[in-house]
Amino acid sequence: MLRFFYFSSNYTQMNYLHNIGSYFLMIGEMFRKPTKWSVMKHLILKDVEDLIIGSIGIVAFISFFVGGVITIQTALNIDNPLIPKYLVGFATRQSVILEFAPTFISIIMAGKVGSFITSSIGTMRVTEQIDALEVMGINSVNYLVFPKTIALLLYPFVISIAMFLGIIGGMAACVFGGYATFEDYVIGIQTDFTPFHMAYAFIKTIVFAFLLATIPAFHGYYMKGGALEVGKASTTAFVWTSVAIILLNYILTQMLLS
Amino acid sequence: MIEVKNLHKSFEDIKILKGISTSFEKGKTNLIIGQSGSGKTVLLKCLLGLFDYQQGSIAYDQKLFSSLTANEKRILRSQIGMVFQGGALFDSLSIAENVMFPLKMFTKQSRSEMEDRVNSALKRVDLENAHHKMPSEASGGMQKRVAIARAIVNNPKYLFCDEPNSGLDPKTAIVIDNLIQEITKEFDIVTVINSHDMNSVMEIGEKILFLKDGLKAWEGSNDTIFKTDNEVVTDFVYSSNLFKKVRKMYLEDHD
Q1: Quick one: closest CA in B to A34, which residue?
Q2: CATH architecture, range B2-222
């Protein structure tokens, strides 16, 4: 029995290592033998529409209301009269810029954009469309994954909107909820502003954008089976993209802020 | 001509192809037939370069595929047209854009030149009014015809078809068979069809390769298949009563 567990655990570790190796090989392949620019530019524009513009609505909605919730929870936890009211705005700004917009929104995007990428590439695998590209002599990884990676370079734009609307949502909740005045909130969001925090947030965002494009694409590209497996691959892609985002969030925070 | 010599292909410990040697001739419809799991699709994918093989060789017009440089392989692949079992049309592109795809990728033609080529390819498969339809709006037969149009639009030297009749009604299947045969003659190309449709075997099988358990069990044509006494072939081809009667009538007529 022990022997079985030893071998099965070794097998699992080998499988993880194999997948990690295949992932980096796929990334190398993505930059090899590029597709004609006249074709590639249309693919990039289409992916910008699907991945970036198509995500703005849900990101705006979530950011506005979560910003409001952060404000309400902060205000309700400040019951000491000696603590100035403007701290509500300060806490909201810090939470939104440092963590909520870059990380929380990226986890949501792993669900929305990630599952879209996995299922669209996975369906192309199942219906032999990727084989058709390969038979024609086209580098299918470059054709499918590269435009998504380039399109997601605009992801910081989505995160900027999330930051702005999170703070606006907090302001609306603060003022209309009567937790602090508009002036207090504005003073709060201007207090001790550190420009590097914005740089930190956008460095994280760029790294997460790369993960959002490539991990789901990897799970879609290398999937085997039929329609049921496309669904399973989407779920697996979401889990692994989230895990990678959370781990790299920790590592980057340790490197950049400590 | 495509020549295959002593081709071996395994997946881990499972041997799929066990030393296949054959040739596929120009201007003829070459059929690979056999039961499910006999290695037809694996052979086709080896020919296309989608699978690597462990032993043997494949030569396109006397040039060994394995010795071609990356650029030579790219040029060769631009001369290959492929019709996949399900069509493999790109869902996000219209029918006209699907057919135009190889031209966009491999030629430097102007938009109007490409449109002319697309129009003539779609006309060749009787789909003159389907340019703006999406693949999801097309029937199974239409999708197969679009796939054929896409495969021939760049004037290929080699045409591969993986079960072009699967899922089609008998009448549409005959239309597709005849279309492939006409295109083979018209463009004088090497056509290799993977099939287990017996109507196709009888109608267009100018050269037939019969596989069983990864081995070449028989080779011949739609004429000689009636006369063969190879039990493996007769068991498979004449498994239905209808084909048994057809064979009996043929042999009586030719005695």
Answers
A1: B105
A2: 3-Layer(aba) Sandwich (3.40)
